[in-house]
């Protein structure tokens, strides 16, 4: 089930009576934060920290689930297409202040995620097979003069993988003691 989408929000514009009801509902469930200017959603949050709202629907007994910031944007600014995202300038997921919201694409959302350092790195990444401590030890072994082949055998990795670590292509968040230009793998300069 999609929490972020709603035919009510996307397929047709919200009329004045609906906008008034939904605006009141958002204002009833939001709290102003004086330092940042955020209007924080005090109602139900999803597992990612975004506010969620259930709107009545004649077709579904439980109603339609939408994200509170998308509803706020639709009411105050304008409708949002199903392939569009509503992004936060304040980087606060529970914020429903329309002045902190803007429309963007999936690519805009991903670029924003990287720029705000919300991408898990190192051992925090879901696909990480090694810990930061292992990678740091590996980089220190390379710094001490071992070749990529020796380090790869020691840690049970391929030489190619160790070479990519040494060049900083992967695991750049874990820093060794020397620069890339100083590292040598298999007798060849890495960089």
Pick out its properties.
elongated; disordered N terminus; two-stranded antiparallel ribbon; 191 residues; alpha+beta; disordered C terminus
Average pLDDT rating: 81
Biggest sheet record: 2 strands, antiparallel
Gross morphology: elongated
Hey, roughly how much beta strand do the residues contain?
A: 5-15%
Helix count from the secondary structure assignment: 7
Plain-language structure description:
By secondary structure, this protein is α+β, with helices and mostly antiparallel strands. Helices cover 34% and strands 14% of the residues. It contains seven helices and eight strands, in the order ααββββαββααααββ. The protein has a two-stranded antiparallel ribbon. A hairpin with an 8-residue loop joins β3 (52-55) and β4 (64-67). α2 (16-28) packs across α3 (68-76). The longest helix is centred in the first third of the chain and has 13 residues, at 16-28. 24% of the residues are buried. Residues 1-11 and 179-191 have low confidence and may be disordered.
């Amino acid at each position: 089930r999609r929490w972020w989408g709603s035919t009510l929000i996307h397929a047709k514009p919200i009329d004045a009576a609906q906008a008034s009801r939904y605006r009141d509902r958002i204002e009833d469930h939001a709290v102003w934060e004086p330092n940042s200017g955020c209007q924080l959603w005090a109602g139900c949050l999803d597992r990612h920290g975004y506010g969620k709202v259930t709107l009545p629907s004649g077709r579904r007994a439980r109603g339609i689930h939408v994200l509170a910031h998308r509803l706020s944007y639709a009411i105050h600014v304008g409708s949002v297409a199903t392939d569009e995202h509503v992004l936060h300038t304040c980087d606060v997921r529970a914020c429903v202040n329309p002045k902190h919201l803007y429309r963007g694409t999936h690519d805009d959302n991903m670029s924003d995620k990287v720029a705000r350092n919300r991408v898990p790195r190192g051992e925090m990444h879901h696909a990480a097979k090694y810990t930061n401590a292992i990678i740091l030890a590996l980089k220190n072994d390379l710094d001490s003069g071992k070749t990529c082949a020796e380090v790869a055998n020691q840690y049970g990795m391929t030489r190619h993988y160790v070479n990519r670590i040494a060049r900083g292509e992967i695991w750049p968040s874990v820093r060794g003691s020397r620069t890339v230009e100083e590292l040598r793998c298999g007798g060849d300069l890495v960089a």
